[in-house]
Amino acid sequence: MKHLIVFISIVFAASSALAQTGKPFPNFQTKKLTGQSFTLPDSVKGKFTIIGIAFSAKAEESLVTWYEPAYQTFIQKKKTMFASEVYNVNTYFVAVVTGSNKVSGDAIVKKIKQNTQKELQAYVLTYIGEFASYKTMLNITEKDEPYFFILDERGIIAHVTKGKYTAAKLAEIEQAVSDDE
């Protein structure tokens, strides 16, 4: 059985040691671009999940490099040049709005929706609020990098990687997901 893969636009970590592998992913209350609440990892338990997180403009720029290959590999249900295997997955990108930007959070979410390709909108989540405690729990140390967390079916962090898209990083994620199938 393929795994549910969730990308939360906040940050992507380079090795499993960067996040607290073996630890539960913290409860994280997000919203879909439609305004519907979506709690992680509760909403995805029972399947393997990849959560991608970016919480700065630079991290968001790097996260965007993942959209096309992630869409083709984990969302689109056919083989492509990026996807050598068809995965039965869902994908979510979560944009985090913190600090002084919280005041204009609704406007930022509206802009995110306008700037997101229609095909990807169903997979974009947003979070507006305090993020320092999540950074600590997830061991996010580089705010200008996107992080992707692979969770097992119980919501436990199994693997982490970070940074801009590369074919090697995508292969690493596919391997981690395939190892758990």
Number of strands: 7
Give the averaged pLDDT, no decimals.
80
CATH class: Alpha Beta
Q: Class by helix and strand content?
A: alpha/beta
Write a brief structural summary.
The protein is of the alpha/beta class. It has helices at 57-75, 105-115, 132-138, 167-179, and strands at 28-32, 37-40, 49-54, 93-97, 124-128, 147-151, 157-162.
What distinguishing features does this structure have?
single chain; 181 residues; alpha/beta; Glutaredoxin; 7-stranded mixed sheet; 7 strands; 20% strand; disordered N terminus
Task: Summarize the structure in words.
The protein has 181 residues and is α/β, with parallel strands linked by helices. Helix content is 28%, strand content 20%. It has helices at 57-75, 105-115, 132-138, 167-179; strands at residues 28-32, 37-40, 49-54, 93-97, 124-128, 147-151, 157-162. It has a seven-stranded mixed sheet with strand order 2-1-5-4-3-6-7. α1 links the parallel β3 (49-54) and β4 (93-97). The longest helix is centred in the middle third of the chain and has 19 residues, at 57-75.
